[in-house]
Design a protein that fits this description.
By secondary structure, the chain is α+β, with helices and mostly antiparallel strands. The protein is built from six helices and 13 strands. Helix 3 links the parallel strand 7 and strand 8. The model has no long low-confidence stretch (mean pLDDT 97). Pfam families: Exo_endo_phos.
Amino acid sequence: MTITVGTYNVRGMKDDVAALIRVLSAMRADVVCVQEAPRFLGWRRDRMRLAEAAGLRVAAGLRLGSVAVFVAPGVRVLHTESRLLKIFLGLEIRAIAIAVVEVEGARFAVGSIHLDLDEAARLRHATEAVAMIEQVAARFDAAIVLAGDINEQDDKTTWRYIAARLSDCYPRAPKGNGMTFTARSPGKRIDAIFAAQGLQVAWCGGVEADPADLVAATDHLPVVARLVRG
């Protein structure tokens, strides 16, 4: 049983929305974890319109925290929940959006996160997010997929913490050079997809979209992984 999961920081739809829609469509994902989803006036409408324009629908996500999960029409959604993570005075409010989905009879608990620029907050939120999605996955006998904007690279503490509990998909079956930031001049891999150790990774990496659209859509590049559950 296979699932295609993507992650994409859309920068609040502040850039070229038409290009953003084309890139989302080019991801051809069953589930997309979104960061910096619209959060101001009309946020529900804006998220819905973005998802629908790309052939998706909104499954989960709070206004605060600006994370969401979009799913494709053929994906069955069994459960959704969104939770705030620990609030640190003076820092952005962070959250996790989780959707438990069923694809080809297999269940997956997919979580979207956007971690902080502050190192201590980033690690605290990562530990909370991993614990939360583990609890949800256990209730539904679902394989875990956690994806998002980690705001650090793979040699740092928070990334290593997540990768010790879930597998970093890109090194297992890389597609492209893996760099995600900035979209205009990609030199860092700060966006990632992590999956339960038991999931096989067919491939993970960049999206085959018009290079001009990738630059115009937002300041991050998307990541997509094809995962197999036996």
